[in-house]
Amino acid sequence: MTTLYPGVAPAATVGGPETTLTDEEIRRFVVDSLSALDVDGKRVTIVVPDGTRHAPVAMMAHHIRDALGTRPRNVRVVIALGTHDYMSEPAIAALMGYEPGHFADEYPGWEIHNHDWRRDETFANLGTIGAARIGELTAGRLTDRDMTVLVNRMVVDTDISLVLGPVLPHEVVGISGGNKYFFPGLSGHDVIDMSHWVGALITSYEMIGSVGITPVRQMIDAAAELIPSTKLLLGMIVKPGSDALQFLSFGDTRTSWEACAEVSSQVHVAYVPKAYKRVVSVIPTMYEDMWTGAKGFYKMEPVVADGGELIIYAPHITQVSVMHPGIEEIGYHNRQYFVGQWERFKGHPWGELAHSTHLRGLGDYDPVTGAETNRVTVTLATGIPRDVVERINLTYLDPAEVDLAALAADPDTLVVPNAGELLHRTEAQRLRLPA
Q1: Span 297-332, pLDDT tens digits
Q2: 435 three-state secondary structure
Q3: What's the mean pLDDT when you consider all of the chain?
Q4: How far is CA 55 from CA 58, 180, 211, 237, in A?
């Protein structure tokens, strides 16, 4: 049953927060859901996440293939990169479960594409949402700019857009998934920049894990309404630390997301007894630069004590951002640093400003003295050189000097493996955060 989207058909679901679904339960749910879907002679576009999202995409894609059979006129798969780097053929093969170079053998009649976000001809212009409406959607946070809605043509020039994706706590929108796979997953820069900046104005600390329809969710839902194809979500709740699935939903991208979001809020949040003076986020290799690896900060910020330190331990990361070199120009700063100097920064891509604040966390800025103060110290123990780390306003630590075992033995330190997967909060924050 839906409470957030009255009048929209509720999603079909299987599983729950205390469940681990069997292979047969998963297969049967996908087959039953898609067998009942009218796809005969229709064009189907499947939207999948890239390699920075942990989920059994290959298994689910094979079930979708079997359920659709030869009924559709054609099937295309598009990888929702947002502004992440394009996936290579070996990476796509690993994502979708086929031998490199043999996609057509594994998925007969299908095509697969990276979202080619660098090329203007990739996009369809769906129109503009006016500044007044943006003001309403954002509760007055952004009132002076129209939003042009550009989206990958593949979800416009199709009959059915079927999103396959996991649902997790997210620093910009609250809980990821659903229409977020269109915006920013397949989006032009206007929606990306404006929605991310609104999220930054709220702050990741307050936003991440919000189950309801946040201002950013309202923005992307409004943009998605302009997509003419039928929009469906096969949503997944992945059991932490595994490839197992606990919950699946299928239906409209809004109510299917709503069903998953409620379960995610129970499954993907870890509660610890206190805030720690030091938190060490051990970043998995699936995050290849700080743009993606910053999730090790987003999801741990609530459990770092005031004045404490968060260490991002990732010797494999050697670059700040492959696709967004502008981060090295502006560095990492809190929200107030940019708000207090808006004339200076308003011409910089807002998505980069937002990312900057998300990794720096809460803080303040005095425009009179130019002094920036931050709630916590952010330390990079990565392969990024010291001079770069210090230039971007963070603290450097040689990863060779990090003794994870010794740090884990310190009662004032929390060491988190595979950081970026689970949102962490303290017991005192239970039912209080997000605001």
Answers
A1: 999 999 999 999 999 999 999 999 988 899 999 999
A2: coil
A3: 94
A4: 9, 16, 20, 8
Which pLDDT tens digit goes with each residue over 386-428?
999 999 999 999 999 999 999 999 999 999 999 988 999 999 9
Angle formed by the axes of helices 189-202 and 215-224, to 10°?
160
- CATH architecture of the domain 12-267 equals 3-Layer(aba) Sandwich (3.40)
Q: Give the pLDDT confidence score for residue 30 in this predicted structure.
A: 97
In the three-class reduction of DSSP (H, G, I as helix; E, B as strand; rest coil), residue 259 is classed as helix
> Which residues fall within 8 angstroms of residue 330, CB to CB, at 6 or more apart?
345, 348, 352, 353, 356
The whole-angstrom separation of Cα 250 and Cα 33 is 7
Residue 340 — φ and ψ, nearest 5°?
A: -75, -10
Q: Give the end-to-end CA distance of the chain in Å, rounded to a whole number.
A: 25
Evaluate whether 287 touches 320 at the Cβ level (below 8 Å).
no
Fold of 270-429: 2-enoyl-CoA Hydratase; Chain A, domain 1 (3.90.226)
Domains in the chain: boundaries: 12-267, 270-429
Tens digit of each residue's pLDDT (9 = 90 or more) over 59-100: 999 999 999 999 999 999 999 988 777 889 999 999 999 999
| This model's pTM is above 0.70 | yes
Give yes or no on whether 12-267 and 270-429 have one common fold.
no
